[in-house]
C-alpha cells in the first residue's frame, strides 16, 4: 500500500530510522518504501496544507510477542494510552475481534497500530524489530458516506466483516487483511486525529474483479488494484 504524507522526511526517519525497517524497491517519485513482513508500505509526498492527510495502518504481530513489539514501537514514538481499571494502559483488548493492539502516532500524524490476532497464530523468525511483523493487516479508507463505500466494495467482491456502515465505521475483508472504512473527519481510534482524506493506493490479492493495470477508485482518494502475476 502507498499512503500520502505532507512530512515525507520525518516519515522516512520514523520508518527507516527509528523503526529500522528495510528499504525496498517500488517507492513513488520523491517517496520511499519499506518491507513490512510479507508486504510493502510506501509513502508519497503530499503538498503541505492546513489539512494534511492522516491515515491509519495496522501491522500484524505474533500474539506472544506483542509486548516486545510494543517496546519496539515505543522506542520510535510514545504509545497511546487509554484509561484502564488500574490506570493508563497502552494495550487495547478487542474481544469481538479476538485481538490486542497498541497504537502510536507518526511524525506526519498517521495512526499506526500493532495488532495481535489470536485466531491467526504465527511464530516469527528469530530477531526483534521488523522481524516481529507478519505483514500489513489494515489500512484506513475514508469517504463521506461509508454505506456507499461498503456497497462499492461489495460489488468488487469484498465483504463487510464487522461494524455498521450507518455508524460511520465498518471493516471490509477478513482477518488476513481489512479495509477500515470510516466517515471523513471521524477520529481515528484511539486518538483525536481526524481521518483527513489523502491519496491511498492498495494492491490486493485474490480479488478477481481487480486488475493490475486498471485501478478502481473507491472512497475519497483511494484506488485498488490487483497484484501483478
Automatic annotation (TrEMBL):
InterPro entries linked: Glyas_Bleomycin-R_OHBP_Dase, VOC_core
Leader sequence residues: none
Entry-linked CDD domains: VOC
The organism's place on the tree of life at top rank: Bacteria
Record domain VOC: where: 1-117
Protein name, UniProt field: VOC family protein
Organism: Patulibacter brassicae
Amino acid at each position: 500500500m502507498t499512503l500520502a504524507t505532507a512530512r515525507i522526511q520525518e516519515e522516512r526517519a520514523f520508518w527507516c530510522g527509528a523503526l529500522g525497517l528495510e528499504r525496498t524497491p517500488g517507492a513513488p517519485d520523491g517517496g520511499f518504501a519499506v518491507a513490512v513482513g510479507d508486504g510493502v508500505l510506501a509513502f508519497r509526498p503530499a503538498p503541505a496544507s492546513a489539512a494534511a492527510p492522516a491515515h491509519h495502518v495496522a501491522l500484524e504481530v505474533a500474539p506472544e510477542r506483542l509486548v516486545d513489539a510494543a517496546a519496539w514501537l515505543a522506542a520510535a514514538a510514545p504509545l497511546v494510552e487509554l484509561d484502564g481499571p488500574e490506570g493508563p494502559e497502552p494495550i487495547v483488548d478487542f474481544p469481538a475481534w479476538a485481538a490486542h493492539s497498541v497504537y502510536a502516532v507518526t511524525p506526519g500524524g498517521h495512526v499506526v497500530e500493532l495488532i495481535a490476532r489470536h485466531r491467526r497464530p504465527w511464530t516469527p523468525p528469530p530477531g526483534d524489530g521488523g522481524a516481529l511483523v507478519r505483514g500489513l493487516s489494515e489500512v484506513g479508507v475514508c469517504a463521506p458516506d461509508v454505506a456507499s463505500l461498503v456497497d462499492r466494495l461489495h460489488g468488487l467482491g469484498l465483504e463487510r466483516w464487522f461494524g455498521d456502515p450507518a455508524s460511520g465505521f465498518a471493516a471490509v475483508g477478513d482477518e488476513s487483511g481489512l479495509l477500515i472504512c470510516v466517515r471523513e473527519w471521524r477520529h481515528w481510534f484511539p486518538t483525536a486525529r481526524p481521518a483527513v482524506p489523502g491519496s491511498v493506493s492498495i494492491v490486493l490479492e485474490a480479488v478477481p474483479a481487480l486488475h493490475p493495470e486498471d485501478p478502481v477508485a473507491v472512497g475519497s482518494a483511494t484506488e485498488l488494484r490487483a497484484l501483478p502475476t
